[in-house]
Amino acid sequence: xxxxxxxxxxxxxxxxxxxxxxxxxxxxxxxxxxxxxxxxxxxxxxxxxxxxxxxxxxxxxxxxxxxxxxxxxxxxxxxxxxxxxxxxxxxxxxxxxxxxxxxxxxxxxxxxxxxxxxxxxxxxxxxxxxxxxxxxxxxxxxxxxxxxxxxxxxxxxxxxxxxxxxxxxxxxxxxxxxxxxxxxxxxxxxxxxxxxxxxxxxxxxxxxxxxxxxxxxxxxxxxxxxxxxxxxxxxxxxxxxxxxxxxxxxxxxxxxxxxxxxxxxxxxxxxxxxxxxxxxxxxxxxxxxxxxxxxxxxxxxxxxxxxxxxxxxxxxxxxxxxxxxxxxxxxxxxxxxxxxxxxxxxxxxxxxxxxxxxxxxxxxxxxxxxxxxxxxxxxxxxxxxxxxxxxxxxxxxxxxxxxxxxxxxxxxxxxxxxxxxxxxxxxxxxxxxxxxxxxxxxxxxxxxxxxxxxxxxxxxxxxxxxxxxxxxxxxxxxxxxxxxxxxxxxxxxxxxxxxxxxxxxxxxxxxxxxxxxxxxxxxxxxxxxxxxxxxxxxxxxxxxxxxxxxxxxxxxxxxxxxxxxxxxxxxxxxxxxxxxxxxxxxxxxxx
Amino acid sequence: xxxxxxxxxxxxxxxxxxxxxxxxxxxxxxxxxxxxxxxxxxxxxxxxxxxxxxxxxxxxxxxxxxxxxxxxxxxxxxxxxxxxxxxxxxxxxxxxxxxxxxxxxxxxxxxxxxxxxxxxxxxxxxxxxxxxxxxxxxxxxxxxxxxxxxxxxxxxxxxxxxxxxxxxxxxxxxxxxxxxxxxxxxxxxxxxxxxxxxxxxxxxxxxxxxxxxxxxxxxxxxxxxxxxxxxxxxxxxxxxxxxxxxxxxxxxxxxxxxxxxxxxxxxxxxxxxxxxxxxxxxxxxxxxxxxxxxxxxxxxxxxxxxxxxxxxxxxxxxxxxxxxxxxxxxxxxxxxxxxxxxxxxxxxxxxxxxxxxxxxxxxxxxxxxxxxxxxxxxxxxxxxxxxxxxxxxxxxxxxxxxxxxxxxxxxxxxxxxxxxxxxxxxxxxxxxxxxxxxxxxxxxxxxxxxxxxxxxxxxxxxxxxxxxxxxxxxxxxxxxxxxxxxxxxxxxxxxxxxxxxxxxxxxxxxxxxxxxxxxxxxxxxxxxxxxxxxxxxxxxxxxxxxxxxxxxxxxxxxxxxxxxxxxxxxxxxxxxxxxxxxxxxxxxxxx
Lengths: 591, 591
Hints:
The structure is a homodimer.
Chain A: E1 3-4, H1 23-30, E2 34-38, E3 41-44, H2 46-65, E4 69-70, E5 76-78, H3 79-85, H4 87-90, E6 97-99, E7 105-108, H5 113-123, E8 132-141, E9 156-166, H6 169-189, E10 194-198, E11 209-215, E12 221-225, E13 231-233, E14 254-257, H7 264-274, E15 287-296, E16 302-310, H8 317-324, E17 328-330, H9 334-339, E18 367-370, E19 379-386, E20 389-395, E21 404-405, E22 425-439, H10 441-446, E23 449-451, E24 457-459, E25 461-468, H11 469-480, E26 497-501, H12 506-521, E27 526-529, H13 535-545, E28 549-553, E29 561-566, E30 572-576, H14 580-590
Helix pairs in contact in A: 1-11, 2-6, 2-11, 12-14
């Protein structure tokens, strides 16, 4: 059955939606693929649903091919299992919570580790049952603080999530690699330009973890690559600590007056003029910047954290966010400074709870973390915890220590790769998939054990794997559109061909319908623009809608020809009207 | 790819789940098709999901065939549109409500009239755009007071809901009939024994309305049929009022002492002995029973209602529930009787707010409704609103009137059909589908208007149509199972064939695998029981799982034969091992 534009539930819009920041969002709305219903919540109109269903089908095929078994768990879930693993609290405001008519706490599933763990526990009891991999394609819910970019970051979205269960680490490795292979096939078929990078496991816990990022200039994620093959999300880069520096000969630290130095640059300038060093001038890299912020744990507790890092580096907010998980970061306000008078705004120095530094009282209840580059023996100019004064020659390990490492400084173009594989280059991307080895965290918390070969109970080890399905639709649109509209790759296009009848004569409509019906009979999904509209309107709409091949039946028909257009390249050629179907079939099938 | 029992994520259970009241629930859980996650919330395991997907596919095919267009609206919805139509309140505790991180009220969609109305309003503006019919297959949410019977009445369930939009009543009639036809084809294909009955539109508003009920002894719905073709849910039976009776000659009513008559029967006995009638004895049908209960409106307001009906009939709780919608019914407690002293427990008589009856003070704030059979002129024995006293010869219309009609008495076997088509017979069923003409209620509330042929704005008229998809799986299971387990019809079976290797020899396993692979290659979905288990375990499991055809490869193989069994009929026959595939294909394809 051919689909006719005159009947299709779609209306194209001339104007961009007010909230659309990026092309895919703009075009998906304007072309009538999606409609916003609430912040981060979208309706899928017929054209959009066709693309979404194609993507789902590809994901399903590749998951089935690695022996994963499809199930469907509920969206509406009881609190208890998430309470047991701590995620009821850890998810904080990102979790949609509700209370049912009997007063029971429930949630909308953000991801289903708990439920799959319990389901396997319910059914399985022996190593002979394993390995097993289960998956579902299903709505997920996260109450994002900033839903954005249409379906790229929604609060209700479709995700393929799968979970592997193995009796030992080797099994987990194998399950992980099978998923990795399936993901490569999926994203290849979706026609996305993507990279596989090391990832931070985030709130999920676990160890080995990789992300599939679609390369995109406006992507939310930043990743690094080295010539030697290192690739990681900046969130996951662990900066290696250099070797300690000998400091036996280092002079004692001394406090100096530093009035009127509102910035690192003015401090460096003052040091070079008032306290010049004989060997080399002060630079920002010689200063130790101490940044204070507030962490808010999921239960609402606010704790100040100071991070010391070289003055020539900024804190990367996303690396910081990852480092403090499951807590969230909040600003350290002027009221907070009043509450912690030991933290002198603009002059914060290293100081650790319970320790003494240069006579300053260590601020109680403040955690102090140090950038990995601040190794023992390095000497720094830094705040003296006193207004208008800094200290110079302060030696790490000798004059101050930290509560731990705070590896949250920005990663910069040219920084060395952690594995020594050369200088890093930076680019941006959007997370399309995430695979990781959860290990035994959830199985332990929920008691998923099986009998091993020797009759002993062992805890099962798990992997967790996700693909953002609605997000994939957004990213395919984003990657393939041009200034005129969408350009769908064949694998996911809602229709392979759009036939445009651009003229009034009955002959034109009849011929266009005939071509559409012949293509349909040959199994090619085809959209026929049979509307009473001008050729200009039809051309513009066809370019906005983005079917891969356009067949224009118009004035040329008088000379026995119709036009074939390739939407992506814009190339066009005339073919005899009688051979149009054959030619289109060759294009569609030839790829 | 054949599916092997040794790998399939399924475990059969020997024992019935504690909460399972009906066979389908018991078997779906025991056979590993579904698992309960929370009250009324189920997980679909691989076998269950295969059936569910088959049902979804059939529904999709038939909806597409009538030109309905598939979309997918969100589950998580904003409050405003439901506030506008009043359903935010009317749904009462049946609606899952939640508050997002910004404090916005949201809900989980119980059904989507509002959202579809707004979507059509968003896209369409002219009569030329209509008619259009849209549908989705999607999770729905209702916080049922009593989720029961597994997937038959859940709190999270899959529904196909569709909505038609027409410019005039003739269009709506046509859309309605198209749906009716599609539903007939769907339920025929699903192999269900069903009836189409008049229905009450319930909370949806609207007028013409029919239900598709699967006939089932343990069904929640009761329906009636007449020899002349009348069929209705008892909830929708409108009992016609008889003609008024002349009462000019009726004697005046009089109050009589009636101590010690706790029941209608004892009252009738006392009347016959103390106040006999010359023409005929008193019967229960001569008494007017006044039943009091409390209605609770969605905003929580409690209002007493008294219903007067012939003493030989009981109130039907479901007809009552429908009659008071959107209010709910609650018991009238002893405390309530204290609060309304005019309502004398056991002696309630007709009395209407603001009216006088026999000197009794009419109870303020009590609504009084009368059964349609209590027509003007009929004479009754009834409570005198005074302890130990009744009144006889009380004439409707002369001595008392009502605030309205209360058509909530039970319908009985043999009652006349409202349309005069003969005596009614009663049976029970489960609602599988519901189609109804909503009319303009939602379009009016949400401002969905289009320009008509004459350039005037007219309100669109709508139909709303639902099928319980997860419920259909439950009902198919319920209709087709026997004492041993499930018996799937071919159209929805998870696998067409189950091949059992019942023996230890490598030859048996090899031959069973070969047959399974040949069937698979021929496009027949096949499940191979390759487990190391006894023949008894395999037979029992196969009968529990319910694939239509079983192929048993066992001891007979030594003589070159295998056994084919038909699960539903239990018939079995031996065929040559070499011709097994051909024979099975004939069975599967021949139907």
